Each structure stands twice: as structure tokens, then as C-alpha cells.
Amino acid sequence: xxxxxxxxxxxxxxxxxxxxxxxxxxxxxLYTDYTLDQYIALLVNQEWEYRQNRKxxxxxxxxxxxxxxxxxxxxxxxxxxxDRNNFExxxxxxxxxxxxxxxxxxxxxxxxSYLAQAxxxxxxxxxxxxxxYTATKLIDDINLAKIQGTYHRLxxxxxxxxxxxxxxxxxxxxxxxxxxxxxxxxxxKYDRSSLIITSQIPVSNWHALxxxxxxxxxxxxxxxHSSHRIDLKGESxxxxxxxxxx
Length: 246
Hints:
By secondary structure, the protein is of the alpha/beta class.
């Protein structure tokens, strides 16, 4: 059979990993170095890796991260109260397996968003469906969905993520609509999946921020009691970098 026809058939069956590997081996005449069983195994493995990488790429795209954060690039030298052993345990994603949450608090510029998104990107590489929102964007999307009649679809999509990241929580007080939406999200995700929440506001002030005591109690009970806490301190890392560059 014509080798080019074989490659085209692979592509038509969406076996892109196999097609690319087979084409490269034909070009360099490497396929003769393998037994038949070995060569079939090679093609299957390459196809599997290709599909895994595509899944990861799609998960990263749908997560909508703002930063290309990487756990390998975390700065532990800065004096901000970040314990390396503790953070690396969280980055191993056991908290996801246990449906636990992470709360990261601290002053602006101490790296809360970077840490949250680094863990989020790690989750995507392990094929966990992840979604990143700033708190403001989440509220805006909820309000728009209510106007467009797609609220339940949006909430369902958010609920079904394995990891939901809400960044900069508490910049604006919650109104009744966003408070109820947060309750809908948190109540569904409790003991099913995980949240990462970052905030400049100490957790002790969240009750007043959420408002309506009964709902605030219910939300915080589901978020805080099953959470790992990272409390960052110190000056802004952005400010320090700017000083060092001048």
C-alpha cells in the first residue's frame, strides 16, 4: 500500500500522533529499526501522548488563566511567609482528591494570584477541569447570564469544574444576586470538588463582606472548614522588583 495513502487515512481517522510519527520515521527510514510489535507500540504511544497533550491544551485554554504561572517558578526566597513544603504538598493536588479547598490571603502584590494559577495549571496538566475567574468577572458573568436567561447553564458549568479559582474575592461587597449565586456554587461543590479563593481581606472579615448572616454562615461553613490556608505577608513583590531594576 502507498505509504502516503496510509498517512492520509490516519489523518482522516484523526490519528494525528500516529500520522506524524509514521511520516517522520519514513522520512528518516527509522521504521526498519523496530520489530512489527515494537513499531505498533511506538505508534500507539505517540497517538496517546498526542491526545493527552491536546486535552491539556484545551483544558488550559478553557480555564482562562491570566498568567502563565508554573509551580517550578515559585519564588520561595522572598520573605512573605510561604512555606515550601506546605505549598509543594498542595501542588501535588491531593487536596483535589479529598475535595478540599485552598484559601490564599495577603496584601496586594504578594503573589496570591500567581500561586493560585500555578496550582490551577498543574491541575490542568493532570487532566482536571479547571476554571479561573476574578471575583469581579464572575459577578459580571452571573449578572449577564441572568439577563440573557442562561444563569442555570452558567452555574451548572461552574459547578461541574473539578477546580474553581476565584481571585481577588472581596474587592466589592456582594449584593443579593451574587450572594445567592455564590451559595448555589459553594453548596453544590461542597464535598464534590474544590475551590481556591484569593483575597486581600482576612477570612475573619468575610462574614460581614458576604452579608445576610444566615447565608454567610452557610457559605463560610462550606468553604473555610475544609480548607488549607496560606497567609502571605510582606511588601509587594512587584514593588521590590521595580526597586531592584532601578
